[in-house]
Backbone:
C-alpha cells in the first residue's frame, strides 16, 4: 500500500510496529479528522500478513478510557486522552503500556496480540521513587523485553528516563533502577519525546523525536541502560511538507527494514495519518536518512492507475490535504506557486510512443490557471506538459511527452492574471485536486 497505508478514514499516529508470528501489528494513538486536540479516548489495532502488506485488517478498539456505544471504560481513575502506547510479548501474553494524559498510566494484558486488553494495574512505583516516576509521568512509554528476560521501560517529555520493570508481574518498577537523561537534551541528541526501544543483534536502538519535532532520530548502545551514542536522523516529516511532531519506530518485516511514522493532514498538527518508508541498517549499525515518499510498502507506483491526491509527499505553498468525508480526500487551497509532488512512478519502457496523456480530476474555484507537469525536481525539472484550469468542476486533460523509467512527478500551479488588476487576484484558490492518471 502507498502512503498513507491505512484507509482514508483512519488516523493512527505514534505507530509502534511489532511482528508477532506471521503478522505485523501497528499500535498507536487515535486521532480524529480536523480535531483541535491530540488523540481521543480509544486505542485501536491494525495488522497485516508479513507477506501481504497491501491488505490491512482492523481489529477494532483494544482499550478505552471512556465508555462508547460498544464498550465500557477500561479505567476507573481517569477519563482523559490515551497517548502513544506500546505492546510487547512476554511468556505468551501481550502487554499494553499506556500513557493517560495527566493521570496514572497503566498496563493491560491479552492472550492475543490484537487484544482487547484487560487492565492489570496502574504502574507500581517504589515509595521513594524519583518524582519523574510518579503518576502522570510515564509519557510515551516504549518497552523492551531483552533476550535474558529482563524488561525495561523508556519514557519522557522534555527529558528522557528509563527504569527496569519486574518481569514477574510486568507492572512494578524495580527499586533503584531509575536512570534519568538516558538520551540527553543537549545537542546533538536534543531529546524531546517519543521513546521507542529496539534491539538488533547486540545493539540497542532508541528511536525518539528531538527538539526539532518533525524528525525521528536514533541513538545506539551496547547496553539497555546506556550510555547511548547519537546516530542521526531517520526521517523528517517536515521536508517540503506541512510538518509537525513525529513518533514511530523501526521494524524488520520479511527481511526488509522500515521506519513507521506519521504525517499531518487537515491543516492541523492534530489529525495524523500512518506512513512508512523503507530503510537500511548498514553493517556498522547506522541508518541512513530517507526521504518521505508516496511509496509506503510499494517499490514504485503505477502512473497508469488513478493516483489519489492524498498520496502526495510534497506540499509547498500553503496547500494541504483535507477530508471531505470518510471516502473523499482532496488537496485544497491551491494557489499560484503551490507545488504538489509524488514519489516515485515507474513509467516502464516504451520505444514506440512519443506522447501520452494526463487526466486530472479537479474542483474549480472560479478562477483561471495552469498546472505544469514537471519531472524529478519541482524547480528545475523537465516540464513535460501543461493543463489549463477553468473556473468550474471538471476533468482537465493534456498531451505530454512520453516518459520511460522511474521518476517523481510534481504538479506546479500558476494563475493567469496579470497586468494592473493582477494583484487583486493574488492568493485566490485555483482549484482543488482529487487525483490524476497517465494514459496512452
Residues:
Amino acid at each position: 500500500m502507498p502512503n498513507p497505508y491505512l484507509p482514508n478514514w483512519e488516523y493512527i499516529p505514534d505507530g509502534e510496529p511489532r511482528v508477532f508470528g506471521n503478522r505485523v501489528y501497528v499500535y498507536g494513538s487515535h486521532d480524529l479528522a480536523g480535531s483541535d486536540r491530540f488523540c481521543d479516548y480509544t486505542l485501536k489495532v491494525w495488522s497485516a500478513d508479513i507477506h501481504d502488506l497491501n491488505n490491512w485488517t482492523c481489529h477494532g478498539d483494544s482499550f478505552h478510557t471512556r465508555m462508547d456505544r460498544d464498550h465500557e471504560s477500561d479505567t476507573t481513575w481517569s477519563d482523559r486522552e490515551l497517548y502513544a502506547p506500546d505492546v510487547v510479548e512476554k511468556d505468551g501474553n501481550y502487554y499494553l503500556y499506556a500513557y493517560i494524559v495527566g493521570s496514572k498510566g497503566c498496563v493491560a494484558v491479552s492472550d492475543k496480540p490484537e487484544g482487547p486488553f484487560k487492565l492489570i494495574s496502574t504502574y507500581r512505583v517504589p515509595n521513594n521513587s524519583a518524582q519523574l516516576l510518579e503518576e502522570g509521568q510515564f509519557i510515551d512509554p516504549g518497552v523492551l523485553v531483552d533476550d535474558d528476560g529482563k524488561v525495561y521501560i523508556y519514557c519522557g517529555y522534555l527529558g528522557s528516563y528509563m527504569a527496569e520493570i519486574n518481569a514477574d508481574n510486568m507492572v512494578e518498577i524495580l527499586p533503584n533502577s531509575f536512570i534519568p537523561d538516558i538520551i540527553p537534551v543537549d545537542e546533538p541528541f536534543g531529546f524531546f519525546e517519543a521513546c521507542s526501544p529496539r534491539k538488533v543483534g547486540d545493539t540497542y536502538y532508541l528511536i525518539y523525536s528531538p527538539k526539532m519535532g518533525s524528525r525521528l532520530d536514533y541513538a545506539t548502545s551496547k547496553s539497555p541502560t546506556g550510555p547511548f551514542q547519537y546516530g542521526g536522523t531517520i526521517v523528517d516529516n517536515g521536508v517540503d511538507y506541512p510538518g509537525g511532531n513525529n513518533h514511530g519506530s523501526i521494524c524488520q518485516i520479511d527481511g526488509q527494514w522500515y521506519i513507521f511514522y506519521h504525517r499531518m493532514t487537515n491543516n492541523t498538527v492534530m489529525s495524523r495519518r500512518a506512513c512508512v518508508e523503507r530503510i537500511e541498517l548498514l553493517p556498522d549499525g547506522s541508518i541512513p536518512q530517507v526521504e518521505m515518499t508516496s511509496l509506503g510498502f510499494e517499490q514504485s507506483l503505477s502512473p497508469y492507475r488513478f493516483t489519489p491526491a492524498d498520496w502526495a509527499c510534497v506540499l509547498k505553498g500553503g496547500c494541504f490535504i483535507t477530508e471531505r468525508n470518510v471516502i473523499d480526500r482532496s488537496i485544497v487551497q491551491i494557489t499560484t506557486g503551490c507545488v504538489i509532488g509524488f514519489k516515485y512512478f515507474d513509467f516502464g519502457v516504451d520505444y514506440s510512443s512519443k506522447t501520452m496523456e494526463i487526466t486530472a480530476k479537479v474542483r474549480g474555484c472560479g478562477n483561471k490557471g495552469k498546472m505544469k507537469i514537471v519531472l524529478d525536481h519541482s524547480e528545475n525539472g523537465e516540464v513535460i506538459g501543461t493543463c489549463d484550469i477553468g473556473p468550474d468542476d471538471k476533468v482537465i486533460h493534456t498531451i505530454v511527452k512520453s516518459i520511460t523509467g522511474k521518476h517523481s512527478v510534481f504538479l506546479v500551479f500558476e494563475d493567469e492574471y496579470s497586468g494592473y488588476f493582477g494583484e487583486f487576484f493574488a492568493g485566490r484558490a485555483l482549484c482543488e485536486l482529487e487525483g490524476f492518471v497517465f494514459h496512452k
Summary: The CA atoms of residues 101 and 188 lie 29 Å apart. DSSP finds no helices and 30 strands in the chain. The chain has a mean pLDDT of 93. The longest strand covers residues 52-64.
